[in-house]
UniProtKB/TrEMBL annotation:
CDD domains reported in the protein's UniProt record: 11beta-HSD1_like_SDR_c
Organism of provenance: Chelydra serpentina
PROSITE patterns, per the entry: ADH_SHORT (PS00061)
Encoding gene (name): DHRS7B
Pfam families for the chain: adh_short
Record's keyword terms, sorted: Membrane, NAD, NADP, Oxidoreductase, Transmembrane, Transmembrane helix
Residues spanning the membrane: 59-81
Protein name: Dehydrogenase/reductase SDR family member 7B
Family: Belongs to the short-chain dehydrogenases/reductases (SDR) family.
Purpose: Putative oxidoreductase.
One GO molecular-function entry: oxidoreductase activity, acting on the CH-OH group of donors, NAD or NADP as acceptor
Length: 365
């Protein structure tokens, strides 16, 4: 018997006519289901298949489809309730935003104003704050935006100003529901060239200022057993990249402080949300300070390619509304880098050393 004759039949392409060889006839009839022993089995199998096909159809229409529809309905209801709860939480809430004069802070102001929060806008530049108040007032939807934002001018790196700003806010609006510590500056430079005055300036603005402001507002939140502290950290609060020492250090310190605060405030029902974004299209790189304390003044390619500030502001709004403890707003690579730093630190350090070599080479050439 030539078994190669069976190949086209097994592949289902072509069955040759059965040769006279009796062994062949047996195999051939088995394959074509014409053998007497095979037919009853084949019939039983077909019947079994048909019965189960029917049962499967019944199961699909009586259980699986209603279950799926029910789950979708429940999910939609859950989202609706979540949205309603969020709106109720944010509407009329007193929201203090630092660094409201530009970038993410300005977009957060627009997002929280749109849901009816009572804004306290903080910054160093009174004129720009007033421009924002005008812009928000012009957009006001009178059903929701009944509160005219109130502005406070102070420099976060001046601890006395920080404390008196907190006092002024409490005097003017009575209490703070949500504090968004957003203001910050970045830095570009090598550790060897950077003076301690620059390290201190970055730490004062990004770390000491926000923690002093938070501490000044906390007692009134504790008294009311109500409040929410938000801080805009960075992916660089979780991983450190070369030529950002002062900035990454300030953001790591921020992450650590607010993680401790979250645990300590639980007993007073005060929430803490840490937001860690990747690159955002703002003037952060332009406003960055360099090793000698001068302005960097360059809009970086990574910044241009980042998320829009409006998009990140929506993430902040949702995170606050849902009382999330922590949010990472970054692409796949930076997010993977965060895990790599913990799970395979040697590999991460190798990547960072090679990044430093490349950046140095690009600067030198
Ligand atoms: N852009 C990005 O790629 C990313 C940004 N972030 C973080 O987002 C936050 C907002 O930055 P972003 O909007 O991007 O940058 P911008 O430079 O556009 O905004 C920074 C804001 O902080 C204020 N600020 C700076 N220094 C002080 C100070 N000493 N006292 C008071 N206010 C000050 C600025 O006010 P003024 O107008 O007076 O200078 C400005 O309003 C920062 O904490 C930053 O670290 C995090 C990850 C990525
Ligand atoms: C398994 C494969 C993993 C591969 C990981 C390789 C490592 C990739 C490195 C990615 C580095 C991302 C850095 C992101 C930095 C960032 O988003 O910072 C946000 C900022 O705060 C921006 O401030 P800046 O002043 O630096 O513009």
């Amino acid at each position: 018997m030539e078994y190669s004759n069976l190949v086209p039949c097994l592949l289902g392409t072509n069955c040759p006519p059965a040769p006279r060889d009796p062994e062949w006839t047996k195999v051939f009839s088995l394959l074509t289901m014409e053998s007497e022993t095979v037919i009853p089995w084949a019939r039983m199998f077909t019947r079994w298949k048909n019965i189960h096909k029917g049962k499967l159809m019944d199961l699909t229409f009586t259980a699986i489809v209603p279950l799926l529809l029910g789950s979708v309905g429940l999910f939609a209801l859950f989202r609706l309730l979540q949205r309603m709860r969020m709106r109720a939480y944010l509407q009329d809430a007193v929201v203090v935003i630092t660094g409201a004069t530009s970038g993410l802070g300005k977009e957060c102001a627009k997002a929280f104003h749109a849901v009816g929060s009572r804004l306290v806008l903080c910054g160093r530049n009174g004129e720009r704050l007033q421009d924002l108040v005008q812009e928000l007032s012009a957009k006001a939807n009178h059903a929701k935006n009944i509160h005219k934002p109130f502005t406070v001018i102070f420099d976060l790196s001046d601890s006395k100003m920080v404390v008196s700003a907190a006092e002024e806010i409490l005097k003017r609006v009575g209490h703070v529901d949500i504090l968004i510590n957003n203001a910050g500056i970045s830095y570009r430079g090598t550790i060897l060239d950077t003076g301690m005055d620059v390290d201190k300036k970055v730490m004062e603005t990004n770390y000491f200022g926000p923690i002093a402001f938070t501490k000044a507002l906390l007692p009134s939140m504790i008294k009311r057993q109500q409040g929410h502290i938000v801080v805009i950290s960075s992916i660089q609060g979780k991983i450190s990249i070369p030529f950002r020492s002062a900035y990454a250090a300030s953001k790591h310190a921020t992450q650590a402080f607010f993680d401790c605060l979250r645990a300590e405030m639980e007993q007073y029902e005060i929430d803490v949300t840490v937001v860690s974004p990747g690159y955002i299209q703002t003037n952060l790189s332009v406003n960055a300070v360099t090793a000698d304390g001068s302005h960097y003044g360059v809009m970086d390619k990574n910044t241009i390619e980042g998320r829009t500030a409006a998009e990140v502001a929506q993430v902040v709004l949702n995170a606050v509304g849902q009382k999330k403890k922590e949010v990472l707003v970054a692409g796949l690579l930076p997010s993977l880098a965060v895990y790599l730093r913990t799970l395979a630190p040697r590999l991460f350090f190798t990547f960072m050393a090679s990044r430093a070599r490349k950046e140095r080479k690009a600067k030198d050439s």
